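Bump. Still looking for N-acetylglucosamine kinase structure tokens.
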Amino acid sequence: MTHSTPSHISIGVDVGGTKVLCAAFNTNNELIAHSQVSTKQGEVEIVDEVCKLISEVINQIILKYGNDTKFTIGIGVPGLVNQHTGQVSESVNLGSHSIDFKTEIRKRFGLNSVIDNDVNAAAFGAYNYYGSDSSSLVFLNLGTGVSAGIIINGSIFHGSTGVAGEIGHIVADTQGRDCPCGQRGCVETIISGTGLSKLWPAKNEYPIASLLRNVSAKNKEAEKVWNKFISTLVSALQIITVTFDPEIIVIGGGVSKTGAILLKGVKEYICRLEQKSSFLSSLKIPDRVVIANQEVFFGALGAALIGRRYDDKAKEEN
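Sorry for the wait, here they are.
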């Protein structure tokens, strides 16, 4: 038995360094189907995995609603995305220098797809969830890597080459660890999940959980690593604030799952800095920062909305 068919279903794929999530949303942005797998390395493997997930989600929807459903597809991928061709380059955390989803999706499903950077997609999802009444929002992703998605006046800010928001590759410690980008001591080597796992190796549990447990136990080395993590994160928040002056800064990604503890650490550190700087105090950074709701698939939602917006514009032009 089928249910009444939604007029339009938007499929969003969030390709991350550790997992690939495909989700479908109706016109009210309600989640109606999803599927997830661990990320594989390499161009052919990633494209094949994404197509399999899309097929699985489409089949879920057809079983529920029937064959008359209209689909649009958006995909968020780490790396530099050519907005004209959809080609993804320098996706360091996927072990690939060039990925082409559009050609394969058109061949397999007969559908156009819209490709954007994964954090841009998450930012667009967060904007529609948190800040559609605001003029600007930045989504700071602390995941396998670190980058920021920037929304200005309701639109994604890509910059002139698509590199806008790659804040993870700002050098924070010239004596720090080598970064996959070829530099040394990047922000990403400190506040990403990958970076933190090297600063604080942990067996059989997440590095951030182990770190915080040892901080609570007054472990001096743990306190040192935590202070470095928080100070670097706060520097990133300062850079975001003075560069884009967003009304809302959403901290997301796997590391953000620490939630209230992370927010408390950030606010306490900023509070200490504000006591020495009236300028920093005037920025009111703590009032701008929120931790992403862990129950919302921001990356997939944003990708789906990007795909839907592209389809709507194409209709208007025709």
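The radius of gyration is 20 Å.

Edit: fixed formatting.
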